[in-house]
Design a protein that fits this description.
The complex is a heterodimer of chains A (172) and B (222). Chain A contains three helices and seven strands. Chain A has 172 residues and is of the alpha/beta class. Chain B contains nine helices and three strands. The chains are: A alpha/beta (172), B mainly alpha (222).
């Protein structure tokens, strides 16, 4: 795990090779994260994977989150590991909601990390984030004819309404 | 014909005489009356069906540990009720136990299994999830399996104990025999207190209520 100065060093080196790709860094609870421009996320991932001395060459997880009141709303998280040094770094790409029922888009990293194939389909399935260049971007867990993106925070919880004590209507 | 009660010893003497061919006339009539039970074909058929139910080897979720797996083990032993033959094919099964939550992606598969079973067939919704989705009030789980297929018996619990499943199973057997349980009325011997019995206990029901009861009973027997 790079410490906070190490993270700034990584940021400086990326800034030299891919200018203005990293927008910010965050070092919270000893977890290092690079917040990157979604248009240049592939450059950053390739740099972290192939740069001698870094070699974060294992994508342990790719997932998304919806920070609804915040703007930009969506984030795609890439958790990278260097297995020799047992070091982790997180790459976050923040995506704005384009609105008008359109879906946010980001480049697919399947060419860099083949294991991302199923994980990007899962993110598409639950958040409706389109990965450009993905070989087969279809729903993976939900039925193919499902309508909606159920892990978004503005998606209704579903089920049937149940009366609890706090939601009970009072007739006084 | 009124049959007088006789001791076992007397009956044995008669049986021996019958085998020798010495019984005739009124004695022979009485011998037959004592040993033959008359009933209807439907009753015998339902009795046979209820005591040879083949459940489908089928589990959906965590309840499967309790239902198809536990109840056939030596401690609970479903074979006592004639249902030890779990079939691996829906074509040979009579009973499907929905043991767990049914997700919207699984629902068409479960419905297809049910449609592949041959008549007569029965369904037991086991546990809170398949009865009403339980705690899963969300986008992925069908809110009760009776949304897409008929259910004969609901067994509550999360999960139900294997004893509860067996209790539900014996209730289902009585339902198949056309003698369904009356719930608390049976327990407190309160027959005749049904709502249509306006004139007091054991009084005649209204014609409409009697018709509705008869229809419900026919549906049960069908």
């Amino acid at each position: 795990m790079p410490d906070a100065p190490g993270l700034e060093l990584i940021r400086g080196e990326i800034e030299r090779d891919c200018p203005s790709a990293v927008l910010a860094t965050s070092f919270d609870r000893s977890q290092a994260a690079l917040i990157v421009d979604p248009e240049k996320v592939l450059d950053v991932l390739r740099w972290l994977k192939e740069q001698p001395g870094q070699r974060y060459d294992f994508l342990s997880s790719l997932h998304a989150a919806d920070y609804l009141p915040a703007e930009p709303r969506f984030a795609v998280h890439y958790e990278l590991i260097n297995r020799d040094r047992v070091e982790r770094v997180r790459v976050k790409a923040m995506l704005a909601d384009p609105g008008n029922e359109e879906l946010p888009e980001i480049d697919s990293c399947v060419d860099l990390f083949p294991t991302a194939e199923a994980q990007e389909r899962e993110v598409f399935d639950f958040f409706g984030i389109v990965f450009r260049g993905h070989p087969n971007l279809t729903r993976i867990l939900l039925p193919d004819d499902y309508v909606g993106w159920p892990q978004r925070r503005d998606f209704p919880v579903g089920g049937e309404p149940v009366t609890f004590t706090y939601s009970e209507r009072r007739y006084d | 014909m009124e049959v007088e009660r006789r001791s076992l010893r007397e009956k044995q003497v008669d049986a021996r005489a019958m085998l020798r061919g010495d019984l005739e006339g009124e004695d022979l009539e009485r011998y037959v009356e004592e040993r033959v039970v008359t009933t209807t074909f439907e009753k015998v058929q339902n009795w046979a069906r209820s005591n040879s139910i083949f459940p489908l080897t089928f589990g959906l979720a965590c309840c499967a540990i309790e239902a198809p797996i536990s109840i056939v083990t030596a401690r609970y032993d479903l074979a006592r009720f004639g249902a030890e033959a779990l079939r691996a094919s829906p074509r040979q099964a009579d009973l499907i136990i929905l043991s767990g939550r049914v997700s919207i992606k699984m629902a068409p598969v479960v419905r297809r299994l049910y449609d592949q079973m041959l008549e007569p067939k029965w369904v037991m919704a086991m546990g809170a999830c398949s009865s009403s989705a339980g705690m899963f009030a969300n986008y992925a789980v069908v809110q009760g399996a009776d949304k897409f297929m008929p259910v004969d018996m609901y067994v509550p619990g999360c999960p139900p104990r294997p004893e509860a499943v067996l209790y539900g199973f014996t209730k289902l057997q009585r339902q198949i025999q056309g003698n369904p349980d009356q719930g608390w009325r049976q327990r407190y011997d309160a027959y005749g207190t049904e709502e249509w019995a306006r004139g007091g206990p054991r009084s005649e029901p209204t014609p409409e209520a009697a018709e509705a009861y008869r229809e419900a009973r026919e549906l049960t027997l069908a």
